[in-house]
Each structure stands twice: as structure tokens, then as C-alpha cells.
Amino acid sequence: MPNYQIRMACRSLFNPAMRRPRLFVAPMVLTKLSANNRRSSVARNSGHYPPSLSRRYHTTTCRLQQTLDLPDPSSCKLDWRLLPKVLHGVSTVIKAPSDEVASVLVLFSQQPERPRTASEWHAEAGRELQQSNINVRRLANLTIAIALMVSKSQRQEVASEGELAFVWSLISDVLQSEEMQRYGLRISRSAQGFVNVPLCSVVEDGKIDLLFRLHIWLPDGKRGVPEFAVHSHQPFAQSWILAGKGTDHTYAAEPVATADLATHARYALAWSSGACVSSAYTHSQTYSKVVNTGNFMKAERGRTASHERNMSYSMPAGSLHSSEVSPEMFHATMFLFDGSQGFVEDAPVLGPAKSAEHIQVRDAPEFTPRALSVLVESMRQWEDYLAQSRDHIRKGQWQQAFVVLERAQALCESRLDLEGMSRYKQAVIDEFDLLLSKHDVSDVEEVAKWHYVYGRMLLLSGSHQEALVHFNHHRSISPAVAFCKTSSEHNRQCLRNLASVGANFERADEDGCSALDYAVINGDLEAEAIIVAALRSNLEQKASGEIHQRLREARLRKHFREIYQELVHPTLIGAGDKAISKIRRAYAEALAKDPAKCRAFDPFKYVRYSDLAKHGRLPRSNAGLTRSYCPRTTADDFFLFFSYRWINADPWAREPDDEENTQHQHILRAIERFLALHPSVDPQKLGIWIDFACIDPEHQESGVAALPMLLAQCDAVISVVDDKYYHRAWCNVEVMMIHKLRRTYGVHHWYEFAASSALQQDGKITGLRPGPTDIQVSLKDKLLRFEEDRAKILFLGKQCDLLG
């Protein structure tokens, strides 16, 4: 059974209720666990753990890939006496009418003839409370769900995936109820940065007896104050992961005499519900406050453990720990505080040794309990879809992989289109990338629909131009044609979506039929109207776009002439060895002085040679390696411009290199040969210009427009040549630029690096040769990956004329 279908989380590897060791299958190993393996030993008597608890409780985490005896969700018998207590805690948090609480209490106050499981109590509540309103049944179900988790924790039993799903379904139903929110469901942000939703609170004499909450870390960048991350809890605590990934760190701390020896100080914690500040806990808080006690502590980190879906971990009462969730990640857990399993009066927070106090206001985020519940459920579905997709792709089940990715795309569009969710959208995009690069499906109509869904995902992530490439995908058939071959409301909606983003409806299939042809053939008048409107709109936009493009090119030529004739040309004519360095300075100053030129052209950017070598592949522009030229710090540096062919076999790939990083290796070898030929060039001051790293693919217009001037600012150009290099349009336009610069001014160097074999010069193997002096470059009929780039190539060709 696939890993995503069975995930077990446990705090103990032995189930005492079953009176026998449990058997688990780990990858490649069958292990029988004995009672001696119930809990691993971490940080025993670690300085802060209460001695009476340190041997019994400690943080433990386990993830099981598969179980031989997965317990049924209904197998856990509940102690009926626990239910009234939990109901009391639920009614404390959810201010339901007293008559509704009383109706549930009648059911839970009667001892059944035999012990009932949670499922049986759930069914009994449905029968006995059938005549009551839905909220009464929701109160009963929430009580049963929490009682089940309390029982599993107190008995040290594993909570199965089925049990966790059962509990979450009951809790989610309550959270999504508008009536329950009116009764008093509230949310607030904890001092640790997560959003919490209290669901049950039993407090005796100001001490937590039982507290059950939902903890959610949102991908909003908001986390707790790092200096106060290390904390402890008065009662024993246990967490069950619903979605996402988090990391828990344990700490051992001991007192020290002075602040100089301390890493932290002990802080006392108190809460306020509005009237006063007290160490007595209240679930309805306006703020919390920690005050430096003056006791200095030296803390050392112990064990670190990461937790994912369906895993669980526990913390002894008073044990020091910190929780870590990446600011851009989502994480949700069910969290239990249980004083019956351990309680300490003194549960400090560790903070800066030299601070006095810190107040954390319990601000409520702009979410409702209902919205949080939907978000948690959506993230659980997202995780399932991604896991299923990877499993299908691994098995070569392409159609099944597409089905779940289509569901993931729809989920991202309907429920996860929120700020901070870009990482999760990108993960779906990456899965589509993998599917499209590996599939061997011959059904071109089906593949066209795949590209449509992929385009929707790219559009959702903000990549409009890249989405259009897939909407206009045409390998025998386009998505527009595919959706017109069969009439349905779903296909018509897909046509509307394509029309709304300006997709191409003019392309025909291999039989010469366009989308409009098929709509007419099928007599689908609605589809026909959609396509006619799209064609009319596209024609109008095309005419407007051509006028706008001509105006833009005219302005670019004006800016280009001013920079070239006033700065570049005079400098190259009379500045000698320092000419190119002076061009870089003059270009930077020109952009800084004129906002119009700054908008029109990219600044000069580069990647350090050392960074390029360490990275192991051609870096993206957003990889954090790209730098902007600064005259004050890099005036004397040497820069190489690399012209190379994109060799990724996948025409839709967003990476220029193949899986072996062949071009990256060629570029590094070319640099080594260049440095050998020019020992005066300092490798530590060597910058590299590569299009993939120095032009932002999402905003490439200004980078492409500046290409001749960017190349002119490089001291040398190296063309990575193979048998297809001179057939490519982009390679030829770059050759045209360096050829005209070198012929006109004689300042720049140009080399060819033969990717196929080393070249000999003067009896030495160099791998480099000077670029030809008599080359005739033509852009006519040269190949492009995307024909839409033809206009850019022709524009740059005209700009090159100025260089001569």
C-alpha cells in the first residue's frame, strides 16, 4: 500500500491495551518491538526536567511507514466518566445555550451496558439526539473527538491515521459551523507565532487540568519573537500533526551566577483577560506577559526532531523546548495539555539575560475559525494529491498523475489562492514539469489538455507569459482545438478561460481545422460565440499591440542612440586599456540620472566566477547569486559574456541546461582556458554574464533591450560552440554584436570554445580559439525555441547596425 495511504504517528511503540508487542514493517526490515523499546531516552534528568517525571516522560517522535495491524478507528473504548468532564471544558470555550449542553450531558451521564468506542458513541449521539438541533449533535461529536484523543494520550496508545481523520472530521464540522462561531469560537495568535483555536478548557484553581486546542502556523511570515522561543508548559503536552512540517528542539538548562556566563534568563509567565495580570491560566486572553526573574541560565540544545502529517510528539511537564516552522510554510496540529499526566507549578520561559519584560498581545488574525478549518482541510488534500502524483509518476501512470494534479490545480485556484501560498503553488508546477518531461503519452489531444491545466497553474502563480506558452501549446493540436472537439459545459468554460487571457484561437490541427471549425461542425452555438468574441478581441489587441510595440521600439532606439553616441562610442574611441571599465561606469551613471532610461534598460549584472563554480549548475536570476555592478567596488573587475545554446531537450523546460549540466561544465572549462591564456586576470575579480542568471525571465523586456550595451560592457565574449550553435537566432545576434564591436573598435576579445573537442594552438591544447574575423552573420531563417521571439531578434539586429 502506498506510503501516502498509511501514515502512523506514535508517542509509544507499544500498545499496552493490546497486551502484546506490535509488529511494524520498516523499509527493508521487519522489526518486532518489545516493551523495552517503548520510549527512547533523551535528556534524562537534563537539568530542568522534574526528577519525578524525567524517567517517565520525555519528547519522543516516531513515524511508521506501514503497520501490520492498523487499528480500526472504532477500536478505542472510551471511559464514559471522561465525557462529562470534556463536555464541561467544551462548554466553557463554546458558550452554547445551557439547554443544549444539558441535552448532551444527559446522554453522557448514563453508564452504558458495555464500554463504547468513539465510533459507537458517535452513532449513539446521532440516534439519541436526532430530534435535537444540529448544534447539539455537534457539541456531542466535539466532546467525543476530544475524549478519544485524551484517552489515546493517557493510555500511551498510537493514534492511527484513521482515528486522526475521524477526529479531524468531527472537529472540522464544528469549526465550519456559523452557529458555533456565534456561540463563542474564538481565535488568537500565540506568543510563539501560531494561531490557536481553543476547543476545550478545564481549569481547576487557576491550573490547567485539560486544554485542547488547534494550533496553526500560517505562511504569513509571522512567528514568535526568537529571543523568547525557548519555553515550557506547566502540564504534560502532546501534539498530533494534521498538515505540514514542523521541528521541535529540546533544551537542558542550568543556573549560572552572572549574565556573562548566561545564554538566557528565567522569565515568569502570566496572563491577562482584561481585568488583571495573573499566573492563573485563562483561555480567554487579551495578552500574556513574561518578566525577568533575575535568575541567569545557561541552555544547551538537545534533540531536534521534525514532524509531519500523522506524526505525534509529547513534552513532559516543565520541559524546555522550542517549535520551529519556516515563515513561508503552513503547519497545523491538534494540541493537548493534560495536567493528570504531569504538572509543575514553575514552567518558565527563557529570554534575553539583560531584558526586563516582554508583552505579547493576543491579536486575532484576519481569519475565522471556519476559514482556518477549510485551509487545514485543503492543505491535507494538497498533501494527498502531491503524494499520489509522485507515486503515479514513479510508476509511469501518466493519466492518473494528471488527474490528481488537475485536482491540485483546482484546489490551489479555489482554496489556496492566498498570500504566502506561492511555495505550494510552485510545488504543483514542479510536478507538472516532471509529468510533461517524462510522459510517453501519444494522445496529443490529452496532452494538449494537460498543458491547459499547467497553464492555469502558472497563471495562478503570476507567470502570465509562461502560462500563455502552454495555453498556445501546439503539437498537432492546441488546447483550444481540443476543447472544441467535444461539446460540454466544462469544455466551454475552459474556452472562456482561454479567451480571458488572450490565448490563440487561430491555430489549426493536422487536419487543417481550427477551434472555430469544430464549434461550427458540432453545432455548438455557445462555443462558437466564445471563439468569435475571442478572435475579435485578439485582432483588436494585436493591432493595438503592434502600435504600442512600434512606439516602444522608437523610444528604445532614442535612448540607445543617446547612450551609444554620447557615452559608448566616444569612450571606446579614445580611452585605451580602460575603455570598457569607463563604459560600465558611464552606463551606470546614465541609468541613475535618467528614470526613463532606467525603466527601459537593465543595469549591468553579473555572477562571481567563484559563485558560479560552487553552484554546480547555471543559476537562475533569483538564486541569490546575481550582483549589480557598482563603480565604487567593482571598477577594476574583469567580465566575461557567455553566448551559448539552450540544450534542454524539453521545448517547454525553464532551464537552459540538460540534466547533466553540460553547458555549465563547458562554461567552467572555457573560463579555465581563458585564465590560462590571460594570467593577468584575477579569478577573484572575475564576473560572468549569463542570460539565465542576469535577465529576469518574468520581466525580460528591459534585459533584452539592453543586450547590445550589456555585451559592450564585458571585456571578452566566449561563444560555446557546437554543431548547432550557428543555426540558433539568439546565438547569431550575439555573434553579430561582438563581431561589429571588435571590427569597429578593436578593444573587445572574442573566443570560441569548442564543446565537442579541444583545439590546438601553437602546439598547446587550449579549447579556445579567437572568433573568426571574416564571418558573415545573417538572422534570416535562424531557429527559435519560441517563434514569438522573432520580433525581438529583428529589433536587436537593427540596434546592432548602430554598433558599426
Describe this structure in words.
The chain has four domains: 77-179, no CATH class; 188-367, Jelly Rolls (Sandwich), CATH 2.60.120.10; 376-542, Serine Threonine Protein Phosphatase 5, Tetratricopeptide repeat, CATH 1.25.40; 575-803, no CATH class. Helices cover 42% and strands 20% of the residues. The protein has 26 helices and 29 strands. The strands form seven sheets. Strands 12, 13, 14, 15, 17, 19 and 20 form a seven-stranded antiparallel sheet that branches. Strands 22-21-24-23-25-26-29 form a seven-stranded mixed sheet, sandwiched between helices. Helix 8 (369-394) runs antiparallel to helix 9. InterPro entries: TPR-like_helical_dom_sf.
Instruction: Tell me, rounded to a whole number, the average pLDDT.
Output: 85
- Taking the alpha carbons of the first and last residues, their distance comes to 68 Å
Sheet-strand content, in percent, reads 15-25%
Helix percentage: 40-55%
Total DSSP helices: 26
Question: Number of domains in the coordinates?
Answer: 4
The unreliable regions are 1-71
Reported for the largest beta sheet, the result is: 7 strands, antiparallel
Q: Kindly provide the radius of gyration, computed on alpha-carbon positions and rounded to a whole number of angstroms.
A: 33 Å
Structural class: alpha+beta
Shape: globular
The counted number of beta strands is: 29
InterPro entries: TPR-like_helical_dom_sf (IPR011990)
